């Protein structure tokens, strides 16, 4: 069976499969075809792939393979009958693309739908591997824009106090951001709507910002639940009060399949001191800061620098591609045997956990969105979008 790896669209520097994964895929009976130049923006040359055993080819030839691996979803014009597509489809936000797959008789595996609570799925979890890097890079971006040093410095000219950093949210990205800021020498405060996050925040060097009346707003899949408007305001007011004296603020709050919640309203930004940097990690899905401009970095009238850089993992394309490739290789190796694709109805990574399971999450299936143009019955619970 042939596996095609594509060059990603403009703005995406990562590649789905790196040379080190090629031999692992070949051992599963797959023949790897790479579109010419697909890895160049991630610093993986065609010669690296050729040395690993991949075939360098045109886009048309790569698209003709039985299995296609990419990061971004393909345009509908490139979908073809019988294609098996492995990518990040983001089905909740892009139902029209899912409908195109159904119409084109495509079998679609959306890697962002990995049931992350299953231990077996953790090595396939592209959300975690990429969020981890994003949290790291967000702090580095904040440090590069803030007009002051980060660690405490004792010099003959005087003592420099450590910078104060606030991380809003402590999922995978948030915890890495806390740890990175701490390693840079900052004093780090962090918040989360999940009460269970306090211990995790403190374990990586942060100080937990507790909101009075906080409950544990975590769903069965490990993501934060949507909050009531009243509690959102209470959280925002509490955290923004701490943030008003900070030097760097990193926002990480992301609700699966929904627009990013506003955690920094415009009214709060107006109270921040000049030189404060806000790094909004969710600019691509609306932004956590009300004043974020997706894809832009700009300074407000009161001197606050708002960083709306999208696709932070893509700014670390070499490392991000390596981790993404490992996730995909582990996944595809689990459903390919001797060069044949095997879709088992008992595979809870593909279909989600059965309802009687401790891991069952209502409304969430597995990564298999549609098979041969037919949507799987669990996936009809995607909020009625299909």
Automatic annotation (TrEMBL):
Keyword match NAD: yes
Reactions the enzyme catalyzes: NAD(+) + NADPH + H(+)(in) = NADH + NADP(+) + H(+)(out)
Pfam families noted in UniProt: AlaDh_PNT_C, AlaDh_PNT_N
Gene Ontology biological process terms, A to Z: NADPH regeneration
Source organism, top-level taxon: Archaea
GO CC annotations on file: plasma membrane
InterPro entries: AlaDH/PNT_N (IPR007886), AlaDH/PNT_NAD(H)-bd (IPR007698), NAD(P)-bd_dom_sf (IPR036291)
EC number, UniProt record: 7.1.1.1
Domain Alanine dehydrogenase/pyridine nucleotide transhydrogenase N-terminal: residue ranges: 4-134
Entry keywords, A to Z: NAD, NADP, Nucleotide-binding, Translocase
Gene Ontology MF terms: NADP binding; proton-translocating NAD(P)+ transhydrogenase activity
Signal in keyword set: no
Coiled coil: none
SMART domains named in the record: AlaDh_PNT_C (SM01002), AlaDh_PNT_N (SM01003)
Alanine dehydrogenase/pyridine nucleotide transhydrogenase NAD(H)-binding domain location: 143-308
Name of the protein in question: proton-translocating NAD(P)(+) transhydrogenase
Annotated organism of origin: uncultured Poseidoniia archaeon
